[in-house]
User: Fold these one by one.
Assistant:
Number 1:
Amino acid sequence: MKKPYTVCHMMTSIDGRIDCAMTAQLAGVEEYYAALEELDLPSTLSGRVTAQLEMSLPGVFQAQKNEPFGQEGFSKKAAAKGYEIIADTRGTLLWEEDIDAAKPHLIITSESVSREYLDYLDERHISWIACGKGRIDLKRAVEILAEEFGAERLGIVGGPAINSAFLEAGLLDEISILIGLGIDGRKGMPAVFDGFPMEKTPTPLKLKEAKTYQNGAVWLRYLV
């Protein structure tokens, strides 16, 4: 299959937690963004929860008729070097208009998304991909990203759900972890990957590169 080279790039505390409000307080946060630049990932993808916290407008889209789209499709509103991609399975997030954005938004949904929501995105000049019955078909989505949107390198920068979904689908080529100087330790805080069944065996990795910074932060890169 044709797909972008895909890297999961995250910053963690030394106990593997990724809460953004926490990691923002740690030495290493500037190195995280420098590492992201070095990875050369023009398109980055986040999950709905991360996007709702950090990117979208307040509120939830309310469809009046709620007629499902019911088929695969896409709408390309901008030809760009890279996209700010958000996985939003049923189409709930609200957005500002995207005309002339340097890094346009691209929303990936399942085919159960309402036609009204896709019309809403079109009105705001926001690109979208709809694929998968009931849930997003990630393998097909990245094929469309490569074939129709020209994506060659993709960074997954979301939370444990989207990271785990890409890992489970066999779509991650590399995992990049910037370890900041601090311990979270709070019960139930999110980790890089989470939610697999107890019987799942560990995913083997191969160390590609390890780098340390003067402030003590560590950057680890692994091939999946």
Number 2:
Amino acid sequence: MATMQDVSLWLYNLTLLPVIFFSVLFLALSLINLLVDKKEKRFKPLADKPFISVQIPTYNDPIAVRCVQKCMEFDYPRDKYEIIIADDSINKVTQSMLSNLAKKNHALIKYVHRDNRNGFKPGALKNAMKYTRGEIIVIFDADWIPAPDFLRKVIQPFSDPKVAVVQTRQG
């Protein structure tokens, strides 16, 4: 007759079987993933560069000035993009900083200020759509620091007609 110790050892070994099975399966799948030749999807270059609207919603964020300045450094044709500051600020200093930046660069930057905060950030973006001309819309948070080649890279997937939205990594 089996003792209690024999039964518990048998149950323990039985419970180890699924753990061993899934561990071996995970190891096999990992090795296959490492060994399979992955071809990076290459997008065809776009024939024409699309017009892009960069929207930056802000609420009392003076740091948005830095984001706008970085957007002005894009290595994308200046006549092919616009920057829209969707400002809900109640702070007069922030409003002044952002509107002055837009006035100095009025060909590139539009300053849109609301006196209400209906819908908060999504409401500010919805309101900015009235002034948006872009075929592609890029949205940055006020503290975002985009790289100069961001627009060039983000439009590439749109060469595939099945692509409607592109999301990128925040850095």
